Amino acid sequence: MNKFRQLYHCLILSIFIFIGCEQKPLILDLGEDGLILDVITLSQFSTQTEQPDTLVIGESFKLYVGTIDSTRSSQILININPIALQNSSTCNDSTQAISSYIELRSTSEIYHIVGDENENPVIDLNKQFGIDSTQYNACFIPNLDSIYNWDNNSINISNDFNPNLGNDIIPLEISISQFGLKIYLDSILSTTSICDFNEPIHILLHDGQVGRLTEFFSTEFYGTTLGPRVNTDIEVILTEEIQLDRFSINTVNPSFLNENDYEIEQDIDGNVTGIFKSKIPDIIIDSLNVVAWSDTAKEIELFKIDLELENILLDSLGIVNLFFHSLNFSNSSLTWADDLDDPASDNWNIIDSTGTENNEIWDFGEYFEDCGNDGVCDIDELGYNPVGTENNEVYDYGEYFDDFGTDGLPDSLEENYHVLDNPDPSNDNYLIDPNNDNWGNTLLYDSSIIISQEIDSVDCYLEYFGTEYHTWLTSSNANLDLLNSWCGDLPNNNCSSCDTLYKVIEFFNSGTEGNGIWDLGEDFLDLGFDNYPENIENNDDQEGNGIWDFDDLNDNGIWDYGEPHESWADCGIDNLCDLDEAGYNPNGSENNLFYDLGELFLDCGIDGVCEESPDIFDDYNIDPNGDNWSYEDSTGTELNSLLDEGEFWRDWGVDQLPDSLENSIISNGGSLNISTGTNNWEFEKYEIIDTIFARPELTSNDDIVIWVSSIVGSQNNYHIGISIYSLKNITQFEIGVNHIPFFDYEENIVQETKINTNYTLDPIDEINFINDISAYPKVIINENDSNNFHINYSDNFISKIEIPNLDSLILSNQNMSVSQAILHLTIDTTNINYHINENGIKILFSKFNNLTSDVFSNEKTLLYSKVVKHETKLDIDFTTEMQRLLTDESNNYGFILEASGESNNFSQLTFYNESDSLFKPTLEIMLIK
Amino acid sequence: MKTIFVIFIGLLFSQASVLSFNGFGENQNYQNPANAGSGQMRLFSTSYNSGASTALATIYRDSFTKLKISSQIQNLNSNNAVNLITQGLDLLSVSFPIDNDKAFQISLSPQYWSQYSINENKNIETVEFDGENYAFKSNYYGRGGYSDLGLVWSQKINEHFSYGLGMSSYFGNRFQSDSTFTYNIFLNSDEEEVITPKSISILNTTNHYQGYGLKMDLLTYYQKFEIGFSIETIGPFKIEQKKYYSVGLSQTNINKIKIPNLSNRILFGIKYNFTDQFACMIENDIQKWSIIDDSYMILNSQNYNLNRFSLGSYYHHINKSIGFYQSITFRGGLFIKSWENQVTKQKITDFGLTLGTGINYNNNSNSISFSLVFGERKFDIYGITKEQYFDFILGFEVGEKWFIRKK
Fold it and tell me: What is the CATH number for A914?
């Protein structure tokens, strides 16, 4: 009873538990007490362009040599640190450095190939081109860095810079190619190799051709292929394994075989390879056996091989192991038939009345034409049309069908159909893009590619007492119906004249899924270009910045295939790939525009016309005379597999061949099964030996056994007997005899070129293997009475941007949500300093991390970057930073706008500053309150 | 022990109804399933031969160690065509008799809970940003509240007085998610309005509640009258709040407030026992809240002050023969509640009719109570002017012999 009560209590409690489950949420309308959007615009700014005393341009991705403008020219300084090479694969005990050269890669063509490459056999981009190479000059200057005030990434030279380069200048030979330039170091490495050179190699490159500015990739550029590199030709000793034969075969002496029965294979040097095979007989049919039946079941020594040992000093083992390979024995043969007048022996005659040929009666199996009583086969019957598509009871492409799926029912007739709640009860609708966001989805066609044009409207013009009236006939107002009556016979009371206007129907694929580009809103891995989470200490610059980053290698401002980028799932801005979208059904048979088995179709043929009269030869008909046998009509005599009266037949016997066509040659035999036992026979070199080896056992599956039956010899010469024991005659054979060679090693000197860059060699004492910088005097800009602020990389123009009212805005809107925030800057393209390279300029917008008066401080965080080309305004997305400012995750210490060294360094952007009433900077913020 | 274990597992499924979206959420009324049928009385017990878990001065009457559970199901209809069926566990308590006139109770009960999901359907309002017109729409979702872990001492002093003292520890969390969608609005070449989704901003907020409270009930017995009086105060009460933004994955620091006195409550009631089996009661319940920083409240709305009048009665039918049950109680009552928002002065009036019954069985050690509440609220909030609801409350008391009082 107690137990019953406890169980009862538990049951009651369980009821309480189960009824305590989640309920659906309440849905109400809040009205005006909900969140609202508020837009705040700040237009009070303080901008200032700054320039440091010393140019810091060493982190540029580019190097420049040549004429910058009318007063300035640029040179390239390169410093090679050869010590970094000394522990590399280029310099070690097994290598010998022969020559070295520096290779620079240009961003555009610096030498144009003239002529057809195929017609110029010496065309080689690495060869010297005498005329052009004189334009560029390179020389070695020992103390180049101090002469040019070059320290790491900074350089400081004046406009009137006229250096004394000293007397230790060594000119260097150079060569140019279509996209590159090589500087050869042989002049300074004539007495010692680069591996033994312990001093920095300073090189100055300048261009003697006035008016030309050449851009090269610098060591800061990503990867090893485009940045400067040092190529060193080296000789290296390579050790290779070689095989030495322990013996050579001098002669082969036949024992059982005749010399004419077999042939001995030789290599191109005339050496015996150890392969012995039977010769192809002159007469193939009824040819003689190599081993006749009478010689079967006997031990037969086929031949003897005479060996001469090779003298290999290092071969201390002294054992010679013999084995067979490539063994092939056969007893196949061809013979003539016994009776050449009746090779198949199927003729009827008085002696042999079992023959079926020429017995004047039809025997089951004999040839006959099963065309029915009419003696006419279907193919010859009038109207025969096996390729007709009408009434062939299968769907042919072009025939109408109801694309209702394999259930044959449209959605509306499927059980439990409801237009909203259950629009596809059978779940058979073909749907590959439920959310309609695929690139290429025709439902998204909007504009871009001209597909067709159609009438947009007709302008009916009427002049009435000096006043012009226009009436527009359009399809949208349904007045195009009046077109004929109004514009058919002009002029009339409605129209004096009519002009037809066309609209162009244009389409473009606008879906964001599968479009191969990252779209705003698509999820991505914010893990940097390596797409791998790093430790905080090694954080990528791009990792965790909330921005989808890509490396714009060609500076075109957009991501191109092949450019490094953060991974993203190209599933569209809904971040659902088709597979995950509700309703995705690529296997659906309804509305898939293809006929599926089970769907109703009209078997009217591909012309879509049923029962046309007369028939246009599309009716399917394989039995016009109606005499075919079938399961439904077993009285048919055609194709019933029986000889019926009237059907034609041949008295050729069941082989269905007359004597003249019967095969008179008979094939016999085939490959034989071979056994070799352990397949290893050995003897010691130079030993006196006279040994008979026993025949290995023949297993039940084998036809033949082959073995080394004897080894006789001493010192350098030995005789090897090869024997067989066969249970069958042999017509052809192939025997390979070989041994285990002696393995030795030899050293060879080969030449190769080692390529070294800053990516292949670690810095030594924090000095990179290759250091480079462009050297030119800076331009000083006067900003005192300007309406602009500027940025460029070449002259380190950077602009500090302060927003005085931002702090008060933050204070009064703390913890509010930001929907959008944009910093609007307008570009002054009329400014004399405005210059944008065709590849654009990459701008960097950062915030200061602390309160500092040093605008060149590195204590800053990148917020936004963009490649600017022909834009006249710059809208910087400030949303994330604004949100962080409102939540105290970030502080307002001011912002900085600067140019990146990744793009063309000499591009310069000029913006209107706060002094301009029309185009001054503004910060627009959309808050959710 | 099995029973206790199952009960605690059951708490994981507990939830509150979701009618209100102001202050801390909706008050959970039905922590006494028997009294719910007698006009939702709080001060008196309407059960035969036992106390009520909410009437602190009556708990001493329980002769057995009692486990009490209450659960409610509500069907609500409003004039905006909303029909909701919600349900939740309202009470879990265990009382232990010390001797003939003392008892001790531990209880766990949700106090203020809310679960709401609101989609705004206001007329399109546009703002201009970056030279374009933007419309917006917001969705709101919230769930959670706080519960009361209470300890009560109940004692009968003499034949004229009994009292109950209660200490409450309040705890809980509330999650809130507000999302705002913005749309571009422009006219196409046919001058048709085209709306294009532009952005979504989501703000998730977590609130953690922790506080304390005290309450005292006093009952006096004079002839056939019982007069009850109760005071209750909540405080100090702490709220910790943190916000998470979808924009830039930003988040705030933890914001904290400490409220010395969150609310005060006074109840006064009179009960007249016509016979040992039949009684009538009236009760007045007044609760006032402190004003708290709006940002910590649901939809920035303050708690509503409450004024309740209840009228109730019951009749015990005694089974004098030996059988499965010992008594059946029939209950009935009326109530009127008036809430008022302290800031907006918005009022909600709630009229209700209550019916109930209960059965004591197994030598009065166990009982089951059912109550029905038919109510109607009138107000004018967000276009809703009327709500009609029907509540079904099921209570279950299990008497065990662990600490049975020695006779």
Answer: 2.60.120
Structural domains of chain B, count: 1
Residue A432's SS3 state is coil
Q: Which of A470, A492, A507 is the last residue of a domain?
A: A507
Are residues A792 and A776 in contact, defined by beta-carbon separation less than 8 angstroms? no
The shortest CB-CB distance from B120 to any of A34, A819, A824 is to A34
Structure tokens belonging to residue B214: 């005290």
Q: How far is CA A177 from the centre of its chain?
A: 29
In tens, the pLDDT along A12-69 reads 555 544 444 444 455 666 766 788 889 999 999 999 999 998 999 999 999 999 999 8
Q: Which of B94, B247, B379 to mutate to test the interface with A (most CBs of A within 10 A)?
A: B247
- Looking up tokens 């009760």 gives B283
Give the CATH number of the domain where residue B23 resides.
2.40.160.60
pLDDT digit string, tens, across residues A624-672: 888 999 888 888 999 998 889 889 999 999 999 999 888 888 888 899 9
Q: pTM for the whole thing?
A: 0.61
Contact A358, A674 (CB under 8 A): no
With left for phi above 0 and alpha for psi between -120 and 50, is residue A149 left, alpha or beta? left
Specify if B406 maps to a domain.
Answer: no
Report whether B12 contacts B306 (CB < 8 A). no
The answer to whether A610 contacts chain B (CB < 8 Å) is no
The answer to whether A22 faces chain B, any CB pair under 8 Å, is yes
Q: How many domains in chain A?
A: 4
Contact A13 B10 (CB under 8 A): yes
Domain span holding position B252: 2-400
Sign of CA dihedral A847, A850, A852, A856: negative
Q: CA-to-CA distance for A227 and A217, rounded, in angstroms?
A: 5
On whether both A77 and A152 belong to a single domain, the answer is yes
CA dihedral A733, A734, A739, A744 (to 10 degrees): 180
**Residue A479: count of CB within 10 angstroms of its CB:** 16
Residues A198 and A277 placed together within one structural domain of the fold? no
Residue to test with chain B: of A818, A926, A927, most B Cβ within 10 A = A926
User: Which DSSP state fits A721?
Assistant: E
Tokens 């597992």: give the residue: B9
Please tell me the predicted confidence (pLDDT) of residue A883. Answer: 94
Backbone CA torsion sign across A245, A250, A254, A258: positive
The two three-digit tokens of residue A114, written as one number: 């003239």
Q: Residue A822: how many CA atoms within 13 Å on its side-chain side?
A: 13
Query: A13: distance to nearest CA of chain B, Å?
Result: 7
| Amino acid in the structure at residue A508 | F
With a CB-CB cutoff of 8 Å, which residues 535-554 of chain A face chain B?
546
Name, in order, each residue with C-beta under 8 angstroms of A798's C-beta and a sequence gap of 6 or more. A49, A50, A51, A791, A855, A856, A896, A897, A898, A899
User: Are A235 and A98 in a shared domain?
Assistant: yes
**CA dist., res. A263 & res. A453, Å (int):** 82
What is the secondary structure of B57-118 as a DSSP string? GGGGG--SEEEEEEEEEEEEEETTS-EEEEEEEEEEEEEEEEETTEEEEEEEEEEEEEEEEE
Residues A788-841 have pLDDT tens digits of 999 999 999 999 999 999 999 999 999 999 999 999 999 999 998 899 988 889
* Yes or no, beta carbons of B245 and A817 under 8 Å apart: yes
Kindly identify which residue of chain B lies nearest to residue A475, measuring between CA atoms. Answer: B190
Could you tell me the residue range of the domain that residue A219 belongs to? 57-240+753-764+766-773
- Token readout for A394 is 């299968």
CA separation for the pair A573, A456 (Å, rounded): 34
In the block, residue with structure tokens 């350089």: A155
792-831 of A, contacting B, C-beta below 8 A = 815, 817-820, 822, 824
Residue ending a domain, among A480, A507, A534, is A507
**A913 and A844 within one domain:** yes
Residue B268 lies in a domain: yes
